[in-house]
Specification:
The complex is a heterotetramer, with two copies of chain A (300 residues) and two copies of chain C (263 residues). Chain A has 300 residues and is α/β, with parallel strands linked by helices. Helices cover 32% and strands 20% of the residues of chain A. In chain A, the strands form four sheets. Chain A has an eight-stranded parallel sheet with strand order 4-3-16-15-10-9-8-7. Chain A starts with a strand and ends in a 15-residue tail after the last helix. With 263 residues, chain C is α/β, with parallel strands linked by helices. Chain C folds into two domains: 7-99, Elongation Factor Tu (Ef-tu), domain 3, CATH 2.40.30.10; 111-221, Rossmann fold (3-Layer(aba) Sandwich), CATH 3.40.50.80. Helix content of chain C is 21%, strand content 35%. In chain C, the strands form three sheets. In chain C, strands 4-3-7-1-2-6-5 form a seven-stranded antiparallel sheet. A seven-stranded mixed sheet of chain C has the order 11-10-9-8-12-13-16, sandwiched between helices. Chain C has a two-stranded antiparallel ribbon with strand order 14-15. Classes of the chains: A alpha/beta (300), C alpha/beta (263). Chains in contact: A-B, A-D, B-C, C-D. The interface between A and B is large, with 41 and 41 residues. One flavin mononucleotide sits between chains A (19-22, 42-43, 66, 68, 70, 96, 124, 127, 162, 189-190, 213-214, 217, 239-242, 261-264) and D (227, 233, 235).
Chain lengths: 300, 300, 263, 263
Amino acid sequence: MNLTTDIAGIQLKNPVIMASGTFGREYGRFTDPAKLGAVIPKSVTLEARSGNPAPRVWETTAGMLNSIGLENRGVTYFVEEELPLWLGLGATVIASVAGETIDEFVRVAEIFNDVDGISALELNVSCPNVDRGGIQFGCRPRLAADVTAAVKSVANKPVIVKLTPNVTSITEIAKAVEAAGADAVSLINTVLGMAIDIAAEKPALGRVVGGLSGPAIKPIALRLVYETVGAIDIPVIGLGGITTPADALEFMLAGASAVQIGTATFIEPKTGEQVVAGIGTYLREHDYDNITQLIGRARL
Amino acid sequence: MNLTTDIAGIQLKNPVIMASGTFGREYGRFTDPAKLGAVIPKSVTLEARSGNPAPRVWETTAGMLNSIGLENRGVTYFVEEELPLWLGLGATVIASVAGETIDEFVRVAEIFNDVDGISALELNVSCPNVDRGGIQFGCRPRLAADVTAAVKSVANKPVIVKLTPNVTSITEIAKAVEAAGADAVSLINTVLGMAIDIAAEKPALGRVVGGLSGPAIKPIALRLVYETVGAIDIPVIGLGGITTPADALEFMLAGASAVQIGTATFIEPKTGEQVVAGIGTYLREHDYDNITQLIGRARL
Amino acid sequence: MAEKHLTQDQLEIISNKVVGDGFYRLTVRSHSWAKSARAGQFAHIRVGKGLEPLLRRPISIHGLDDRDAIAFLYQAKGAGTALLAAKRTGETIDAIGPAGNGFTVDARFRRIILVGGGIGVAPLMFLAQAYRAKGTAVTVLLGARSKDCLTCLADFKSLGCQVTVTTDDGSQGHRGYVTDILEQHISAGPGPVAIFACGPTVMMRRAATIAGLYDVFCEVSLEERMACGVGACLGCAVMTTTGYRRVCADGPVFSAEEVVWTG
Amino acid sequence: MAEKHLTQDQLEIISNKVVGDGFYRLTVRSHSWAKSARAGQFAHIRVGKGLEPLLRRPISIHGLDDRDAIAFLYQAKGAGTALLAAKRTGETIDAIGPAGNGFTVDARFRRIILVGGGIGVAPLMFLAQAYRAKGTAVTVLLGARSKDCLTCLADFKSLGCQVTVTTDDGSQGHRGYVTDILEQHISAGPGPVAIFACGPTVMMRRAATIAGLYDVFCEVSLEERMACGVGACLGCAVMTTTGYRRVCADGPVFSAEEVVWTG
Ligand SMILES: Cc1cc2nc3c(=O)[nH]c(=O)nc-3n(C[C@H](O)[C@H](O)[C@H](O)COP(=O)(O)OP(=O)(O)OC[C@H]3O[C@@H](n4cnc5c(N)ncnc54)[C@H](O)[C@@H]3O)c2cc1C
Ligand SMILES: Cc1cc2nc3c(=O)[nH]c(=O)nc-3n(C[C@H](O)[C@H](O)[C@H](O)COP(=O)(O)OP(=O)(O)OC[C@H]3O[C@@H](n4cnc5c(N)ncnc54)[C@H](O)[C@@H]3O)c2cc1C
Ligand SMILES: Cc1cc2nc3c(=O)[nH]c(=O)nc-3n(C[C@H](O)[C@H](O)[C@H](O)COP(=O)(O)O)c2cc1C
Ligand SMILES: Cc1cc2nc3c(=O)[nH]c(=O)nc-3n(C[C@H](O)[C@H](O)[C@H](O)COP(=O)(O)O)c2cc1C
Ligand code: FES
Ligand code: FES
């Protein structure tokens, strides 16, 4: 069964990618990263960032809120300490880049130019948990395009732009980043949400508002992916709430060229591998010989 | 225990309202509508509308999609046949108005001017399931304001504007309708979503895209309510995924003056009554003597 | 009006047993349901305790076991019916019903023909009980996988029904589709005769066409995805000659003539 | 490094019994966990089969029952722990662990004082086992509702610990807070002495302050909401003197000095 997937000029052994911020190298103990299409480690910024106050996570019905706030040790630590571990585990690595300014995105991308073992960049212009950068870029077509164009002008690797669902029109943003040169888009980042801790009579998260992820948001993500696929010509990577092979198939039937898995890993560390296996089984049982035959089949 | 709630100049015996499109008079067999704050029957348009093709509903994890499409028998039927039944059951009735044009909203509102037993109007400028009117009004501050102002200029009853979550900035819309004279806003209507029927390899809903409701969307609704309360001075009615008294309390602690219950009624027809009882118990146990003491208490 | 008996009840489970490959027969105690339920009606059941799955599941009433007990026949298909299958004697199920309109039960018919496919056999047993109680001759034509319900054949027979089974491959009974033999059965006895069909859409549609050709009374029991199950949400609409109608409240039984077939 | 034994296992339940008002003691069979687990570590348990609740629940290891069995002590608080309480002998639990770092177990201490409040007593039993195995004198100060665990007092005593209970109202043991008597116990015997605390934040904070005053070694076991439980998501961060640290991977045990108390 051929699960090989081409996205933005890179070839993945299968279309199952582990989403940024949810798949740490700790999971190498439970599942084999080499069997996955790719791994996207937590977004990195130019300098280390310390993140938001606790509580940072809160469970909701079939979902969870997080307000981590892009905590990371900065690009140098990533390149020197984390990347080698992933490569040592045999993972295909896509690096997620975040920043407060366009310049920060550009500088991180430039650093990655000289690093082997990074297959592509994913620009996180959609993090809802920071005061500057993040979602502000992703909500305005013009800004999203500017970040994309700036990074494209320096990067020697394919650039995937990760979109936020928290907009009136995702197709406007998608078209803007396509025009600015993006090689692919991925969606969705988390949906803005919040919870109140009734026992304390105050917001559950230290930062009040956070990002909702998990099965609860799957129908939202699927609608946005379906619409985006219809609006642009570059590949779309679908994510949001995928926990089973069937969920992944929904995204691919809707037109996604690949999928990402986030929150589900917290529940079942082997989800990625299970989804790869389940897609294979589906293709066999339905007499497809190639994963690409499936992509967009449910589109009207 | 005083659960009396004032919204937009009308007094409700408690803050629990049954949401439009989800509480039919059939439920009078399972629960007593007279015990609820108010009931909002399905949105009515000037003429009868036949709605969208099947399937119109689809279950998702902790949620459901619907694409009913404002099926209703028109305002005359509503006034002559449905309203008397509700009033006969002792319900306080808020009428939901929908339309394809501003003029249609205005004409329905004018008809309601002469009808006794309608306590307020709720303008549904946020239905995602129709091609014209609906969500288009609710996504653009200017259009939302225009509908509101036009209806306010004729209506002799308080006007509540029901907002859609499918926007980049809900506060912009909320401020616009407040400036246009709205007496209150209610939010959220359903979140745009879709599902793929894998067995059929096609979209699950006849209309492809639908509105997501139920527990899955509660964190999204709560964030929008929290933000809206902070942005405007008129009362906010909160809804989206409320199934328990605790859920309702989250919305009120976030600043909602009242709540609405939709999808939960399908699961448990007595949800409305149970929420009223649960709020009462909470107030008693926490030594509040008035529901208004609770409103907005979790705001920072 | 059927609706007038609609209630929400916690029904005690008398038994819940496997009766075929993935088929279960559930019996619950309820005098009021047994008294008011009509063939073709269904129960809208909350299968889980929490919010997973979220919505209730519609399951037809399969028959009366005695004056205080009603039976359901269901197929464990997905998560919801799996939860139902896990329930044990003594537990209760939260059910809304008897919901829907029910089949026409009319003594003027001298013979009725029940056309069932797969789990569609479920409501037809109750209908057979009703007609046999009136002394009407009942012919049962079961399609394809209907043998999956091991108890059904014997149950129909013990009611005094004449039963014919067809399978696609001829592995059991006649070979072919159940509707292939419908015409011969219409002509094979005295009238007036009525046809009642429940099963896959293609089967019901074919039965409806044949009934039309022979100008025979025919009702079909439709399925559609449901949310409320009581007529409130307009979620289960099907197209008919008089516009959209609700399967849960205007149906599930419709006159074959009024259905606008889409599947 | 503790992390090196971290695995995902289906652990067979030996027993799961009520041991107080809403308190349960769960024992599971696992040679590898029993062998590698250290006091203060926890299991990250998938309590449901489906997606309700969504996330795993962290539960400390309460002790070793024998070389193939580990025990948990937990309080049924919400939906997740209720599901755990419903599990029966012979079923399995899906657990990730032993997770976290664990308490310091060091033979140089002549005496240790365990300060527990409420369910915070859970990991302290395992720690008592570890120190008693080294022959160290163990004093246990249990606050307030610790009597809720009926078996704990007897278990500590049978390990040879000296146990003192305090309650707010004096209904049992000393009247007042458990930390009120901590000072006298620090001075009441030979050193070096170490304090290990687990319970409500106010209690741990007070114990930390007292330890600071007497310049005594002190570790506390912190709680924070968790998602992954293995260090991947950065969801369980707590503020320390060296910045945010992860309760699940850098903790749950922290030196009392490095904690920046916020509660
Ligand atoms: C009026 C009516 C009477 C029925 N009577 C019976 C009966 O007597 N015995 C029986 O075995 N089945 C019956 N069904 C079908 C039964 O409701 C579905 O098989 C069941 O809901 C599947 O639920 P699940 O969670 O196991 O499967 P899933 O596939 O996981 O269900 C997912 C969703 O689809 C809905 N769904 C799935 N299949 C159907 C369907 N065919 N029709 C409507 N909704 C569906 C479920 O309610 C749920 O919302 C009836 C359906 C209707 C409409
Ligand atoms: C390292 C660690 C060890 C623990 N050891 C034990 C133990 O040995 N025995 C025991 O009874 N309890 C222990 N707890 C607390 C236990 O995890 C919670 O009581 C439990 O998760 C509550 O789940 P619930 O679904 O029953 O309650 P709910 O209130 O419904 O839980 C809702 C959510 O809150 C989280 N949550 C609730 N309370 C806590 C809490 N205090 N800390 C962290 N998350 C929480 C849950 O995981 C879930 O995400 C420990 C917590 C941590 C962090
Ligand atoms: C705890 C947590 C941390 C996350 N951190 C990042 C991040 O650093 N960068 C990023 O692009 N997305 C981040 N995300 C978003 C996920 O990559 C993903 O877009 C989102 O969770 C939706 O997918 P899911 O429902 O499968 O989790 C994070 C999500 C979670 C739950
Ligand atoms: C089946 C269905 C039909 C609905 N019809 C309407 C409608 O006619 N008018 C309207 O304003 N909202 C309608 N809604 C939206 C609900 O009133 C409510 O805003 C939404 O479902 C979110 O609340 P919930 O999660 O409690 O259901 C409908 C929702 C559902 C599920
Ligand atoms: S399911 Fe709601 S009207 Fe039929
Ligand atoms: S819970 Fe994920 S890092 Fe601790």
